[in-house]
Request: fold
Amino acid sequence: MANLEKETNMTENRQVMIDSLPDGKLQESNYRIETSPAPEPEADEVLCRTLAVTIGAGTRAGLQGSASYAGAPRTNIVMNGLGVARVEKSRASGFSESDLVTCPSGWQDYSVHKGEMLSRVEDDIDPAHYLGALGTNGLTAYFGLLRVGEPNSGETVLVSAAAGSVGHLVGQIAKLKGCNTVGITSTPEKCQLLEDKLGYDSSVSYRSEDFRQELKAACPAGVDIYFDNTGGDILGLALFRMNEHSRIVCCGVVSQYDTSNPAGGPRGIPGLLVNKRIRMQGFLVFDYLAEYENAKDEIKGWIKSGELKPINDDFQGLEKAPAAFVDLLAGGNVGTRIVRVAD
Amino acid sequence: MANLEKETNMTENRQVMIDSLPDGKLQESNYRIETSPAPEPEADEVLCRTLAVTIGAGTRAGLQGSASYAGAPRTNIVMNGLGVARVEKSRASGFSESDLVTCPSGWQDYSVHKGEMLSRVEDDIDPAHYLGALGTNGLTAYFGLLRVGEPNSGETVLVSAAAGSVGHLVGQIAKLKGCNTVGITSTPEKCQLLEDKLGYDSSVSYRSEDFRQELKAACPAGVDIYFDNTGGDILGLALFRMNEHSRIVCCGVVSQYDTSNPAGGPRGIPGLLVNKRIRMQGFLVFDYLAEYENAKDEIKGWIKSGELKPINDDFQGLEKAPAAFVDLLAGGNVGTRIVRVAD
Reply:
């Protein structure tokens, strides 16, 4: 707290700016750090001190093309991202100094927001969970699996990017619902982790030369729900493992974000969808906004009871955010990638 | 009837046999006609005199590959197909001479079946309707549009192969449900027919050089339901016209049946499915078996009231069946292709 006071008095604001748009793979050099005085809140505004920001693969889509829900890409703006923050000064009713909130902080130390942009969070749990299991990632796993996937006990749930921010929660929630879970991830080391720490029943590395055969062997009863975080070749192979009346939850396309030349679609569409009566459905978590609070209550209950063990994958220091993002896109993360900015 | 008696007494049975499997496009020469004595019914069997058979594009899938619900392809068997027939001799309880039935007659004059393979049909309507609007085609249109597509009044329904056996009924049922309908077909002449005779609000020819632009212009409010009978490039373009929360009904893949090298899947999958929250769902009509009778009652009501005008596209004579099939796959048909075998 003494530390925080000192920083606050300096009112220096470090900002990670988008310096250039990536041409091919994202690089740390696509960002630069600027320092400027912290902003002052106007009437109805709140000054927030960023404690942590989360980095999601989906943000990559905002840096290219036009066919994205994230809007057209721009440079010379602070990189966007959701943060958890402590209120430093409030000129908005309903918020007081030292309240904990989530806000669209971006990658910077300080940000000001209208009160309606903030969401107060409780202090009975590590606030970084509000960027993970109790934030967009957790809600995405929750609504995608339960509402789009509609799992039944005993079914097989296959998850790609299974160790990722969303995937590691999908696997655990599927187990809570009595499903058999199979995770797809990058390396044998991560496979081990899926089975030892994240509760997956089995796992497959998509980098294996025998991936196709290993995927088949890992799903002896076929796949009833494929929770697709990747698209691309993994989706193409998973399609051929789907059971009749199975569901493909189209959650993300991480295989296609970090490129300016997205691949063609998977073979077998639509033929296999017809023959196997497969439902393939995209969703965005925002569509379930009205149900967020109930879902958060349920997820928090699972965390407190120990039934759900979210993993936060921390980087220390705002200046590490670009490296954390590049590493995330290369498949380096386990759980929710968090950049801790201040205590 | 005198005519029929004469033919019956001859008990000569013409059969259209699969002579070879198509290598590339189906040819009339893939079939041959054989003549043999009509079979005699054993105990619990019924001898059926084929009056008409229907030819559906989906049957083509049974002549190649393995990934089909129709089973592995074979030669030197009678070509399969559903017929409407008159009972000639019955040794099965529940059926008597001159009853009208539907049965898996195949392309031949006479066939014998266990009683449980037959479906009795009423004689208050042209029995050929039981091969079209009151048969698999009509039920496919009905369940695909209403159960998978879930249309709401005022929505835009786009249909490919819109003049086809299923498509021409989908468009009409969509109009009955208050939708705006856009049909995709092959030629400008067929487009005219879609609008003049089949009740489509607008139409587009996929052979037009400006197909992409014309499709866009024909759907100014986007597409809420795409009823896909074709797959391939048409699906690929339709995807980019879909509205948020829209549905793609995957009914058939006619563009891919008549080839031994199916194309890759459409670009934009799964990215567009996510961004637009599109549900893409395959179905087979057999899944709705328990509801067939209610559906037939409703469809028959529409036909009798004149609200639904099914079109039967007749070829005269069993020997014309191979030509009728080849022409169908080339996009030559309007409505349900029927081969009339006897009066």
About this structure: Residues 27 and 326 of chain A are 6 Å apart (CA to CA). The domain at 136-286 of chain A is CATH 3.40.50.720 (Rossmann fold). DSSP finds ten helices and 15 strands in chain A.
